[in-house]
Structures are given as C-alpha cells and as structure tokens.
Amino acid sequence: MNSREKGYKAESFAQEYLEHKGYKILEKNYCIRGGEIDIIAEVEKEIVFVEVKSLANEDTISLEETVTEKKTKSLIRASKHWLKTQNFDNIDWRIDFIGLILDNGKIKKLKHLQNAIY
C-alpha cells in the first residue's frame, strides 16, 4: 500500500469513527490554494475541521508532532475560507486532529485530539 492509499484508508477510518460518534460529515478533501482540509463535519451545532494523519509507527515521531506550523497555518486559512464561502460568520468552530497508526490496512491505534489547533 503506497502513501496515498494509506492516506485514503486513514481518512475512511476517521470518517467512520466520527460518524459513529455522532458527527455529520459535510465535506471531504476541501482544497483551496495553499491548503486542504481532510474532513469537515458538524456536531452539536459546531463545525469541526479534521486533519487526519497516519503513521507506520510512533517510534520516531508522535502523532501530535506530524502537524507542522506551516500545516497549522494552512488549516486555519482553509477553515476560515470554507466558513466564509458557506456564510457561517457567527458559528462555533474548531480544528481537530485524528492520528492513526495502521498495520496491514487495519487500525492499530487511533487518537482524537479536539481543539488540537487554536
């Protein structure tokens, strides 16, 4: 499985996890110039922008360390752009992080950090 396939698999697992937790998926892979959001969802009248990361293991880097400062800025920019295009100027929103460690296409570990980026 190449890295693109792993990414899609991780996003699919993350979507299933979120739906199981009661999140309504609004959009996937939202792209603007200089930014992408893996999953946009809604839960309890709050918009949640989700960054999904997958690793082979956590030996060399923790899941939290995979989101760089550059990625943080692009996530915030893309989130604000999406909110503006949807006319959601006065709605609560946050950016979450879902990290997965996959082993042979199966989830070995899933970590969900709410309000991971602010």
From TrEMBL:
One of its GO terms (molecular function) is nucleic acid binding. It comes from Candidatus Dojkabacteria bacterium. HAMAP family: UPF0102. This is UPF0102 protein KC909_00505. Belongs to the UPF0102 family. It comes from the Bacteria. InterPro entries: Restrct_endonuc-II-like, tRNA_endonuc-like_dom_sf, UPF0102_YraN-like. It holds the Pfam family UPF0102.
